[in-house]
Write a structure and sequence with these properties.
The complex is a heterodimer of chains A (173) and B (122). By secondary structure, chain A is an alpha+beta fold. Chain A contains six helices and eight strands; from the N terminus they run αβββαβαβαβαββα. Chains A and B meet through helix 5 of A and helix 2 and helix 3 of B.
């Protein structure tokens, strides 16, 4: 009787382990950032790239339209690659682009903008990368889509491509 | 003269207490940083990493400590930004009940079996 009970306990334990491991097989063991989580815009204060004055977040996102926050740097090669697509997006009247210049040299950043064009309505300086953390960013380039209710509705890690641009256009339509 | 001496002693003591509070803040900062995963590194905590991401997190943790936030509040802030994965120590919630309670359950069951066996031998 006692042996039977022990066997049942071992059997239940093994089944339990099997279920745990079987469920674990479905989960990827590498980390992938979630891109569809809705979040409120962070409250921050940042220096303007051109005006050399500080802006509160509420004075940056003033209009009732969609916004894109793009984190970029002159030293970032993929940023150069995605820049033409940002220029294309800036032609769209229903969206405003805000640039976040990440851990960059101001002169190099200005050269970058002069060379490739300025798709941004406003550029903010993030000298130490803390503003990017407030947005929940990992590095550069990274793009956030903000809806009319001032909520982050999508996050694109890495350079944007044509497919992403189409996706954004479809959302803001 | 006496007043001046007392004044000087108070000043020195105040200096020490300032150092002590800096030391405490540093200890708190290090313990928080050791519990944060560097999301762009392989198997490193933010404390151990020198990446741009890690140095930004280090700065923001210092900023939050100076603002008077506790370690739990800072962990919650980072969880809100990056998800549960960023903190090494998982929080007790509906997804981690098994993780936290299973060792306790195994300990209790093991203890009960041992006790039963000992009673049986007696």
């Amino acid at each position: 009787m006692k042996n039977k009970l022990n066997l049942i306990i071992i059997f239940i334990f093994l089944i339990f382990c099997f279920i745990i491991f079987y469920k674990g097989l479905d989960k990827p063991n590498t980390y992938a950032p979630k891109t569809n989580i809705e979040k409120n815009l962070p409250i921050f204060k940042a220096k303007d790239f051109i005006l050399d004055t500080y802006f509160d977040s509420e004075n940056v996102f003033t209009e009732e339209s969609y916004y894109i926050v793009n984190i970029w740097a002159s030293w970032c090669v993929p940023c150069r690659k995605e820049h033409s697509l940002l220029m294309e997006l800036s032609n769209n009247q229903s969206i405003k682009l805000i640039g976040l210049n990440y851990r960059d040299n101001l002169n190099n950043a200005k050269k970058f903008i002069n060379e490739l064009g300025n798709p941004y309505t406003q550029i903010l300086i993030d000298k130490d990368g803390t503003l990017a953390v407030e947005f929940g960013a990992y590095g550069v380039p990274e793009t956030f889509l903000i809806d009319k209710n001032k909520r982050i509705i999508k996050k694109f890690v890495g350079p944007i491509n044509k497919k992403i641009v189409e996706e954004i256009k479809l959302i803001i339509k | 003269m006496k007043t001046l001496k007392i004044y000087l002693i108070i000043l020195v003591l105040m200096g020490f207490s300032h150092l002590k509070s800096d030391e405490k803040k540093n200890e708190l900062k290090n313990s928080i940083l050791k519990n944060i995963r560097c999301l762009i590194c392989q198997g490193q905590s933010v404390y151990d990493s020198e990446s741009d991401f890690a140095s930004s997190i280090k700065l923001i943790v210092s900023k939050k400590i100076n603002e008077g936030m506790s370690d739990d509040q800072i962990n919650d802030f980072l969880r809100e930004k990056y998800g549960d994965w960023i903190i090494y120590e998982p929080k007790l919630d509906k997804n981690t009940y098994v993780l936290w309670l299973l060792p306790l359950l195994l300990f209790l069951v093991g203890g009960a079996i041992m006790r039963k066996n000992l009673n049986f031998r007696k």
